[in-house]
């Protein structure tokens, strides 16, 4: 899942191919206070999502736990604490660290692997930090990617970046994009796959007029339906939305169901969540608060499901079913996902970061159909007919 | 791999969704004389490809060995032996049977499985016969599909069906398409995957002007490079082409290299073969002879490789590499293949026949790179820089 950010990153690199200027193993500190605070009350915890509001402006306080040095220097981030570009970069650095540490904790508790941290820079400016955990004990593949890029774009490329874009004027537009994107494929089929992506864009017309907007979403792809888990997941996202308007969750829940539809199979990729784009109201700060709340709701919405199911027993048919569903996940990502498609069509794109979302293993069988009344059929029914969960 | 045929089948079904009117286990006779004749001299045999020329006109002599009753009734095929629609249907029925039996023979010799035969009809006319062997001993997944469809199409849909299409006139064009499409994924990584597709189209303008053309190709995707095998494969295709003009093989070999390029990875799907579209010269009969020769060259180009390698020893890393390469195969089919894309975008498409081309299992690893000097690196080198093989 990449959505608009990847698209934007790669339409951007059309102007010159991405080169990994250098790659470092990254700064790995053991400061877990942030995500421990977030994980808080254990399984299905529903603590306040708004505890960070007071410290959001600089948000570099957490920098000692970031996965690597940021793309913009820490000094610059500190000095420009009011600039949304810097605020966004600091926020996604923090969220990346919190999410990676939360996932890694579950993995290490079972004697598994640590994330690999790949920091890459573009020669033309900007770069990203790709964190990957592959072939672990709890997680088969988990990727948490941030990217911060800027440059010049032709207007039709900019136009592609917006789901319902406003007209941009000028031949070559100044452009900035920062975002976090993640997919986690656990090994146990009783733990769902999760995906989230939060992103911020700025585009400046030839006449100096500036546009900015936010986009993002979090969605869940279970292999077996555990209604309680899905309700918890949606409730947590709804809570993050509700603080910014009661209308948001229903609107973005529906957008998510629509976006992740796989038309040729007449089913959804998963049980949804929230999805939005072109968010630029009521103010930049309010939008940022909203996106931050959504991003902060990933850990409490998802990690309890990992904790609850990571030791569940698994049968061979359950694993087979998981692999078949992963095949469907690949179908959506490679055929329909806007960002992946535009990304990969672009020469010089950093395809390893784009394809990080694919599972380690997937399977396709001719005319596979789960037996009537089975738990597999029960999931299929929900994917064909999306439900309200809250 | 579906190319234009699928596109055509599915743009066609836009006018009404495909319904499987009935599905039969198909007629399975043990008359193996045809493919035995083709298999002839054993490993790497290079016998004449033109032995069928004398009997091409009716071509229903082989009907007792077809996988199922044809889509058009046998009587109609017999009575219209001069109509290219009937000649093409009879030819692809024969090729399907010969290829299925040749593949199945290799499988059954090792105590494996038989092909499943799925005959499906469209309520609006036409249909197809899908033959699938899944999770076998020698073959992990093999699909051999024919379809014969006709109806009415808007002109821009017709336009999409041609790689370099001539202008069609009129709002609703009468349309016919018949083709065979196949992908074989063997279990042993020392046997390459093969794909072929041969197709015939007719379109009639509002003013009664008729267009017809042929398209097709055969290409090889090895996991380990065996130069002798690749040379044999290309030589066999070249021989089929050469009888119709020495210029054809080099032209269609290059077209194949271009078509199966995976731009985001800067590598080809495999070691190529031949690929062509819009073939309508010098005459319908000559084109048909050419396409028939190409289709008949599949068994002698590929089956010797199966026979040669099916008992080769396989290590765990070799299997892992095969699965990674299968991931690349999925990437090409779902992201770039014209037919698959347009097919799956169309509501009501028979997606099971379209996705039959996907392997049973595929794998994606972050930044996998084979060690320098390894056999895996040797293959990668050839995929990055396509060679001349003949």
TrEMBL record, chains A, B:
Cross-referenced PROSITE patterns: COPROGEN_OXIDASE
UniProt keyword list: Oxidoreductase, Porphyrin biosynthesis
InterPro entries, alphabetized: Coprogen_oxidase_aer, Coprogen_oxidase_aer_sf, Coprogen_oxidase_CS
Pathway listed: Porphyrin-containing compound metabolism; protoporphyrin-IX biosynthesis; protoporphyrinogen-IX from coproporphyrinogen-III (O2 route): step 1/1
Top-level enzyme category: oxidoreductase
Keyword presence, Oxidoreductase: yes
Domain of life, source organism: Eukaryota
Quaternary structure and interacting proteins, as annotated: Homodimer.
Protein name: coproporphyrinogen oxidase
Gene source species: Aplysia californica (California sea hare)
Name of the gene encoding the protein in the UniProt record: LOC100533310
């Amino acid at each position: 899942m990449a959505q608009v950010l990847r698209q934007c990153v790669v339409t951007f690199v059309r102007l010159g191919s991405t080169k990994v200027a250098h790659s470092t193993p990254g700064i790995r500190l053991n400061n877990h206070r942030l995500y421990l605070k977030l994980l808080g009350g254990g399984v299905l915890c529903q603590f306040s999502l708004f505890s960070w509001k007071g410290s959001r402006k600089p948000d570099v306080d957490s920098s000692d736990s970031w996965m690597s040095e940021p793309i913009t220097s820490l000094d610059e981030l500190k000095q420009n604490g009011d600039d949304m570009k810097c605020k966004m970069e600091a926020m996604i650095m923090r969220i990346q660290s919190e999410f990676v540490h939360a996932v890694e904790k579950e993995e290490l508790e079972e004697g598994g692997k640590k994330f690999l941290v790949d920091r890459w820079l573009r020669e033309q400016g900007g770069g990203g930090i790709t964190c990957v955990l592959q072939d672990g004990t709890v997680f088969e593949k988990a990727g948490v990617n941030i990217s911060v890029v800027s440059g010049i774009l032709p207007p039709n490329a900019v136009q592609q970046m917006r789901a319902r874009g406003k007209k941009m004027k000028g031949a070559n537009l100044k452009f900035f994009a920062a975002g976090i994107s993640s997919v986690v494929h656990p090994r146990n089929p009783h733990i769902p796959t999760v995906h989230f992506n939060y992103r911020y864009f700025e585009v400046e017309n030839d006449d100096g007029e500036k546009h900015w907007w936010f986009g993002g979403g979090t969605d869940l792809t279970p292999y077996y339906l555990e209604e309680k888990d899905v309700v918890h997941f949606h409730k947590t996202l709804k809570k993050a939305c509700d603080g910014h308007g009661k209308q948001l969750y229903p609107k973005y829940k529906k957008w998510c169901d629509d976006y992740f539809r796989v038309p040729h199979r007449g089913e959804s990729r998963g049980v949804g969540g929230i999805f939005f784009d072109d968010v630029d109201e009521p103010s930049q700060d309010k939008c940022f608060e909203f996106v931050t709340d959504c991003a902060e709701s990933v850990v409490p919405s998802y990690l309890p499901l990992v904790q609850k199911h990571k030791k569940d027993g698994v049968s061979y048919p359950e694993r087979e079913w998981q692999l078949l569903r992963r095949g469907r996940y690949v179908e959506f990502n490679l055929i329909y996902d806007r960002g992946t498609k535009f990304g990969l069509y672009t020469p010089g794109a950093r395809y390893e970061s784009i394809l990080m979302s694919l599972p380690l293993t997937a399977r396709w069988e001719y005319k596979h159909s789960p037996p009537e009344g089975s738990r597999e059929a029960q999931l299929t029914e929900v994917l064909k007919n999306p439900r309200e969960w809250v």
